[in-house]
Amino acid sequence: MSTQKGNSSRTRPQKHKNQTAFKNTLHDTSNRTKIINNLEVADVCSRCKEIIEWKIKYKKYKPLTQQKKCVSCEQRNIKQAYHVMCIGCGIKLGKCTKCCQEKEVVSVTVNKIPFRLDREMRFKLKALPERRRRTFKRYMEKKEKDELTNDELKEDLLNKLEALKVEDKDEDDDFDFDLSEEDLSYSEHEDECN
Ligand SMILES: [Zn+2]
Ligand SMILES: [Zn+2]
């Protein structure tokens, strides 16, 4: 009998079976969804992380429209939806920033694997003149402080390396905010030749 309840030894296969795993970008490729999908849930305990990630996956996630007040320091400094405590207080008190329990939290800001230039990048960097290498290193130091994932950082730095390389071939570059004596005399010399 097909309507029989609690029959665990059913041999008939499930009638409606999903052919593919649920994918929230199937009908929605908007930027908003993309940004939400790329969110890295951190500074919360693993249970809260799961809850938030579930919301992201099933499109229940609602980003904050403005920063929220921290329940501990009462400053309006929470950027992440569903968090009730700011990251600073979470770290200080050793608590999850969502459920506020004293639990071990998943953290990207603290436990992030340090970024290293890979072979391709080192090769590209080596090919640059010294002054540009310094420009790149300064840029990299600045960028490392941004809240980027290593993948994002890598992409950004690769673009920068490319930009430095291309500009090198141009007759002039306008990003030269740190011309050294040597550079100036070099360009003067060039002018004389023309
Ligand atoms: Zn706080
Ligand atoms: Zn929690």
Automatic annotation (TrEMBL):
Instruction: Extract the ranges annotated as region (Disordered).
Output: 1-26, 170-194
Lineage: superkingdom: Eukaryota
Q: Which InterPro entries match?
A: DUF2039
Name of one Pfam family that matches: DUF2039
Q: Specify the protein name.
A: Uncharacterized protein
Extent of Polar residues compositional bias:
1-11
